[in-house]
């Protein structure tokens, strides 16, 4: 299935304005369609960026992951690539309203704009669509479907990311754990020093998501880290009320989510 792209701008009445990082960021998102949750925040928190470095967010949507990185690490030069014009416009709007520079390119990861193909970055992040559409049901909203339903194989995402990464730079993805074999195989082809950090919903539960990082030119052996625990307690309480202290620090205080040394 090839989903249509959301090109029509969102009307103001169709947007919500949501707080991220404890109110450090105020982000416009569509009330219906693709809405970011905690996943891009966790992805952003895991990037080992430093002031003076550069970062590219592939499939940046409304810009939340990239802007979360800059909120934690001021002085990072940000760029994003987004295929849907309506979401690219939201990313520019969120950049301006939060006073954080984000250069947004419109285009396909498989056929990037020429001006972007000339550049390399210290860090690349991506939150690719989670679901293979030959094994799942498409979303009715075109924007949400493009964000959640895979149209481009994960191997192509990784290849594109590796090509835009400078030597010694990192590529970090967040993805569902069942996609790990595909993602790991692709990273092993183009990157080294690969690290896997499972995100554990609760102690004793299986991971549903993983953070996977590779380094351009890295030579270290594969590392599978102990999982990062998201929620405290054995049972679900009120939404947002039972995150672990460390996870709350990431989501509310812009703390880092480091891969273990």
Shape field: globular
Sheet with most strands: 9 strands, mixed
Contiguous low-pLDDT stretches (5 residues minimum) are 143-150
Portion of residues in beta strands equals 25-35%
Q: How is the CATH topology named?
A: Rossmann fold
Radius of gyration from the alpha-carbon trace, in angstroms: 17 Å
- Mean pLDDT rating: 90
Q: Topology as H/E string?
A: EEHEHEHEHEEHEHEHEEEEH
Helix fraction bin: 25-40%
CATH superfamily: Vaccinia Virus protein VP39
Q: Helical element count?
A: 8
Q: How many strands?
A: 13
Determine and state the CATH class.
Alpha Beta
The count of domains is 1
Give me a quick take on this structure:
The chain is an alpha/beta fold and 261 residues long. Helices cover 27% and strands 26% of the residues.
